[in-house]
Amino acid sequence: MATHRSLQFSLDRSSPVPLYYQLSQQLEAAIEQGALAPGSLLGNEIDLAARLGLSRPTVRQAIQSLVDKGLLVRRRGVGTQVLHSQVKRPLELSSLYDDLEAAGQQPATHVLRHVVEPAGAQVAAALGVAEGAEVVLVERLRLAHGEPMAHLRNHLPVGLLDLGGDQLAETGLYRLIRAAGITLHSARQTVGARAATAEEGERLAEPEGAPLLTMERTTYDDTGRAVEFGSHVYRASRYAFDFQLLVRP
Fold it and tell me: Is the keyword Lipid metabolism assigned to this protein (predicted)?
């Protein structure tokens, strides 16, 4: 099992950036890059402080910042252990399954529901169908490394593609749409945040009231047809949206 002894750290003592922050950033990078995999032991704070020539309070502060982010946990009789890395998802037209797989997060899916139901007002407006018209609902729980990551609800027009439960459990929805010969072209997306309900907390292994990220997305094909409306909820402790902002010329 990997520990800090297998890692190399570079601390700049002449930098105005606090040493604890430099250490925490390098530890976080090691977790994100897989050098410290889930379950790895970080090791003893005293040993790490001695190895790096830092004070124990400095090392403790660095570790605590990652504990607060949910990346590390202190276990009595075990030590400080890596929980997981936070998934940082780029804001582009990709599926959560693909993003998790690309990040080495071992995605898995529990299909909760796969039914045909009447479209409510929001879904009807998004898909451009009459309210009450039949649409397909796919509801899933997406996991990474065996832990719940997100609760996904996707509505699609009836007849868009032939979906099987096994397919939905084995791969991402966008892959299935593309495999059906549909070219995904663009999407409109809204990102928000709110507190978890008791039911959501139980489903996502978070306490009631924990922060959740929300996303609603309507996806269009290359003919301008709406092919999917998604309403998703993510664990904020495990997930973040990554933005790149550009200055207008």
Answer: no
31, 85 Cβ separation under 8 angstroms: yes
| Cα distance from N-terminal residue to C-terminal residue, the chain | 50
Pair of tokens at residue 94: 């990709």
Among 140, 179, 141, CA closest to 161: 179
Residue 134 one-letter amino acid:
E
Nearest CA-CA partner of 105 in 50, 74, 139, 146: 146
Look up residue 132 and give its two tokens: 């009450």
The answer to whether residues 62 and 69 touch, using CB atoms and an 8 Å cutoff, is no
Q: Residue 32: which residues within 8 A CB-CB, separation 6 or more?
A: 85, 86, 88
Query: Cα 25–29–33 angle (5° rounding)?
Result: 175
- Distance in angstroms (rounded) separating the CA atoms of residues 240 and 162: 32
What's phi and psi for 231, nearest 5 deg?
A: -130, 105
pLDDT of 10 above 80: yes
Residue 89, φ and ψ in degrees, nearest 5: -95, 125
- What whole-number distance in Å separates Cα of residue 155 and Cα of residue 121? 12
Whole-angstrom distance, CA of residue 14 vs CA of residue 90: 34
* Strand partners for 116: 136
Categorize the per-residue pLDDT at 1 as very low, low, confident or very high, splitting at 50, 70 and 90: very low
pTM value is: 0.65
User: What amino acid is encoded at 247 in this protein?
Assistant: V
